[in-house]
Amino acid sequence: MNLLAIDTSTRYLSLAVMKDGKVVKRFHRRADMRHSSILIPTIEKVLKDAHLSPKGLDGFCISIGPGSFTGLRIGVATVKALAYALGKPVAAVPTFDVIAENAKAFEGIICPVLDARKNKVYACIYESDGKKIKRVSGYLLLSSDELKKKLKGYKTVTFLGDGVKFIREDGDSIEDWYPRADVLLRIGAEYFRKGKFTKSGELQPLYLYSKECDITGW
């Protein structure tokens, strides 16, 4: 299976290529607001380094959010166009499922938290036995106080993300929490094995905010 995975949901740009079922190329660097200018050249480079052409791909994996409005639009629009032009399927993976894997070895509750602006956070709650992770909540948009109430009954919790500062004063978080495309690739490959595809024309970011909500510069 040959797949290209792309994550543009945070300040990092992360890409990975699977060739014949193995991850052969990775790109994971801080891009800040430069996703739009470096995404296409980076796609071309990682595919070239993997000795693959776009036509040689079996499909795409994309992290759909929640996250940066601008970053998600860029990533989703790019994959949407490529998948449509090439007639390839897409695995649309929620970003929190990718982030949570960074704490997979932790035994207890894993809670990714991202700053959603407007005094709210994006969050999701997972249970981990140190080997497997199970999502036990929906993908949430709520205030930090509301999230604290949801977590009140849990004794052992680890947080990941730039929204942790709103939950804990010490900002305790796994330092390298950013979603990685090689993890996205692993989850997306499982989607492919299960036939869990999204058609290019139906691909949309997972914003959680309503379409009418105006948050600029993010």
Describe the model:
The protein is α/β, with parallel strands linked by helices and 218 residues long. Helix content is 28%, strand content 26%. Strands 6, 7, 8, 9, 10 and 11 form a six-stranded mixed beta sheet that branches. It has a five-stranded mixed beta sheet with strand order 3-2-1-4-5, with helices on both faces. β4, α2 and β5 form a beta-alpha-beta unit. The longest helix is centred in the middle third of the chain and has 18 residues. The protein starts with a strand and ends in a 25-residue tail after the last helix. The relative contact order is 0.21.
Notable characteristics:
Nucleotidyltransferase, domain 5; 2 domains; six-stranded mixed β-sheet; alpha/beta; 5 helices; disordered C terminus
Compact summary:
With 218 residues, the protein is an alpha/beta fold. The protein has two domains: 3-95 and 178-202, Nucleotidyltransferase, domain 5 (2-Layer Sandwich), CATH 3.30.420.40; 97-166, 2-Layer Sandwich (Nucleotidyltransferase, domain 5), CATH 3.30.420.200.
Topology at a glance:
Layout: E1 3-7, E2 12-19, E3 22-30, H1 35-49, E4 59-63, H2 69-86, E5 90-93, H3 95-100, E6 107-115, E7 121-123, E8 126-129, E9 133-135, E10 140-142, H4 144-151, E11 157-160, H5 181-193
Parallel strand pairs: 1-4, 4-5, 6-11
Antiparallel strand pairs: 1-2, 2-3, 6-7, 6-8, 7-10, 8-9
